[in-house]
UniProtKB/TrEMBL annotation:
It is a multi-pass membrane protein. The lineage of its organism: Eukaryota, Viridiplantae, Streptophyta, Embryophyta, Tracheophyta. Its main location: membrane. It holds the Pfam family Ferric_reduct. It is found in: Membrane. This is FAD-binding FR-type domain-containing protein.
Length: 700
């Protein structure tokens, strides 16, 4: 059976399930669900194995995990077809392109496309619908009901409102972890990337904390005015645990305070470390509401745990760092050995950890290499600006024979969607050029394939100093030759804004550093091998089945004999047991998958190990070579014919973009926020209907 046909069936099947999940979120706050659907379904599902929690497991947890598993299978089949011809014109898909066009450029939400705005409005409508349905029950609060609780009517309404605000906050929490599950299949199936979806995580995080803070404050006020302030110290045996909720809220507030842009940019380490408070937040949230209600928000966190554990296993290996190029503009290119089975798409990113600098800090960097053009090597580019990268620059400037490095990733888009355009305009500011290097290398590879038609490329790069022009030399890999550009229609417009003429010396030196890896250093490899999506499908499905078996045994032989489904058993103990069952299930299945792939592809790693003999002159004795080679401050000779350099001004982006020819023009912007906003404003101005904008922003 044709894999395209199978993918089409899966896609339509997933669409139906997705619409069903959306319907359940709409119905959840209604009286119809509470009074009719929920009792009817729960009555059929209650058992000695899963107790009264079976309803939420079936309705909320299972469908999403099923979508994630089937989505992994869908992506696996798509990867097998990745070599198909993708050169058709993007103009054929007019309506999707219109949806992706930016409609909001400047504002608190940043650059927002039509589809993103529509989804944002729909989500806000869901929150308003949820809270509105709950608040519509306020008229049912009578003086008689309040008197029965020994309080006034407005106090009873305050308590009810506080509860409903918290329930609305749970809607945000249910979606909070999807954008940060980097290796999950949910984002690629929707056409999203992890780095591009961080802004959704930020939006959801703010909404979650606003609602949960209001929830907590309202309850504190209620307890204060009713003389029940001692309720703040209550840890219920089988009901809501107030202390757990307060600890979760305090942890969340500490995390939230460090996420605001000014703090995050100036004190990144503070932001990084306080973000680990999410463990406290989630753990005590589960103890607060109980595991039964947690199943509503569990799927996103479940997928995040799988992703986080796989990243943990990958980060335990020290990878083989072969060489580095240190540019005079304080830019570093690190070159790693990799297995041939590790493939990735342009604009991918990778998280790097250097234990000799910091054992805890992980920083994301753009992958500049291309897995087709450079089958046995992977490169990342680092602009040395912050404390961490400056220390790395100093270490590489000294005489070191080896640098221990661990990695997570790479992560990137599921397809090379930019190939569908007739012309690609890439606008970069400073180090924002780095994601475009991988795109150009991909197009260099495809331009040398007779059956592939590659789009024309216009690269508009803006630099402050002429010394920064040396970054253009990274467009070609270390082993690149001028002939590789002969079939590529490349035009480079470089602008130096702070200088009216070249002020650097005629010759600048690039430092090439070659390392002596240890025998224990391994080539980079996909943690789940070449068939990673298929293995992820197996991990998601098998771990959830294992979890159901474990929790069924615990309920049947430990909880049910004591509780008999009366919900009088300790909610905290049940929560801890379920958390342990989830962790054990994920750890067992993921570890087995990783171990199997390590054994299977160990032979390939031994073959790649021979790369350590490759040095500047091919001699093993030169492995520790640290050399300086002369490099003009202008681009490499192979790029000179394609490059035009302008001094003392900024580019007229409107003119340069609108003058481009083609039925479909992809406009990519990477760099400072103002630059991306300016390019987005041009594409959304309506002056041309063939412009398709994409912002490449790394806001980790």
């Amino acid at each position: 059976m044709d894999s395209r046909f199978v993918r089409a069936i899966i896609r339509h099947f997933l669409t139906v399930i997705f619409l069903g999940i959306c319907m359940m979120w709409i119905m959840a706050p209604t009286n119809t669900y509470k009074q009719k659907w929920k009792p009817a379904i729960s009555k059929k599902l209650v058992s000695t194995y899963f107790g009264t929690r079976a309803l939420n497991m079936l309705v909320w947890t299972f469908p999403v995990l099923f979508v994630a598993a089937m989505g992994s299978l869908y992506l696996h089949l798509g990867k097998k077809n990745s070599n198909q011809n993708v050169s058709q014109s993007g103009g054929r898909k007019r309506w999707p392109a219109l949806w992706r066009r930016p409609v909001l450029v400047k504002g608190p939400l940043g650059v927002v496309s039509g589809m993103e705005l529509a989804l944002f409005v729909m989500f806000m409508a869901l929150l308003a619908w949820t809270l509105g349905n709950y608040l519509n029950r306020l008229p049912t609060v009578t003086a008689k009901a309040a008197a029965a609780d020994g309080i006034k009517v407005w106090q009873e309404k305050l308590a009810k409102s506080a509860l409903w605000i918290g329930l609305t906050g749970n809607v945000c929490l249910a979606f909070l972890f999807y954008p940060v599950a980097r290796g999950s299949s949910v984002l690629p199936v929707l056409g999203l990337t992890s780095e591009g979806s961080i802004k959704y995580h930020i939006w959801l995080g703010h909404l979650t904390m606003v609602l949960f803070t209001a929830h907590g404050v309202c309850f504190v006020v209620f307890w204060a005015v009713t003389g029940q302030i001692s309720e703040m110290l209550k840890w219920s045996y089988s009901d809501i645990s107030n202390v757990a909720g307060e600890i979760a809220l305090v942890g969340g507030l500490g995390l939230w305070a460090a996420t605001f842009p000014r703090i995050r940019r100036r004190f990144f380490e503070l932001f990084f470390y306080t973000h680990h408070l999410y463990i406290i937040f989630v753990f005590f949230f589960v103890l607060h509401v109980g595991i039964g209600y947690t199943f509503i928000a569990l799927p996103g966190f479940y997928l995040f745990i799988i992703d986080r554990y796989l990243r943990f296993l990958q980060s335990r290996t020290s990878v083989r760092l072969l060489s580095a190029r240190v540019l005079p503009c304080h830019v570093v290119e690190l070159n790693f050995a990799k297995s041939h089975g590790l493939t990735y798409n342009p604009t991918s990113i990778m998280f790097v950890n250097v234990p000799s600098i910091s054992k805890l800090q992980w920083h994301p960097f753009t992958v500049s290499s291309n897995s087709n053009l450079e089958a046995d090597k992977l490169s990342v580019i680092i602009k040395c600006e912050g404390n961490w990268s400056t220390k790395l620059d100093r270490m590489l400037s000294s005489s070191i024979e080896r640098l221990g490095v661990s990695i997570e990733g790479p992560y990137g888009p599921a397809s090379n969607h930019f190939l569908s355009h007739d012309t690609i305009v890439m606008v970069s500011g400073g180090s924002g050029i780095t994601p475009f290097i991988s795109i150009i290398r991909e197009l260099i590879f495809r331009s040398n394939l007779s059956e592939c038609k590659t789009p024309d490329i216009i690269l508009i790069s803006i630099f402050k100093r002429s010394l920064d022009l040396t970054m253009l030399d990274l467009l070609l890999p270390m082993t690149g030759s001028p002939s590789e550009l002969s079939n590529l229609k490349l035009q480079i417009e470089a602008y130096v804004t702070k200088e009216n003429e070249p002020t650097t010396d005629n010759l600048k030196r690039v430092r090439s550093v070659w390392f002596k890896p240890l025998p224990t250093d391994k080539p980079m490899a996909a943690i789940l091998g070449p068939n990673s999506w298929l293995w992820l499908c197996a991990i998601i499905s098998s771990s959830f089945i294992m979890f159901l078996i474990l929790i069924g045994i615990i309920n049947r032989f430990y909880i049910y004999p004591k509780d008999h489904n009366k919900n009088e058993f300790s909610s905290s103990i049940q929560a801890v047991l379920n958390i342990l069952a989830i962790c054990v299930s994920i750890a067992a299945t993921a570890s087995a998958a990783v171990f199997w792939n390590k054994r299977r592809y160990a032979r390939e790693a031994m073959q790649v190990k021979n790369m350590e003999a490759q040095t500047p002159d091919g001699s093993p004795d030169m492995m520790a070579y640290n050399g300086d080679r002369e490099l003009e401050s202008l681009p490499h000779q192979s790029l000179a014919e394609a490059t035009k350099i302008h001094y003392g001004g900024r580019p007229d982006l409107r003119r340069l973009i609108l003058e481009c020819k083609g039925a479909s023009i992809g406009v990519l912007a990477s760099g400072p926020t103002t630059l991306r906003h300016d390019v987005a404003a041009i594409c959304s101005s309506g002056l041309a209907d063939n412009l398709h904008f994409e912002s490449i922003s790394f806001s980790w």
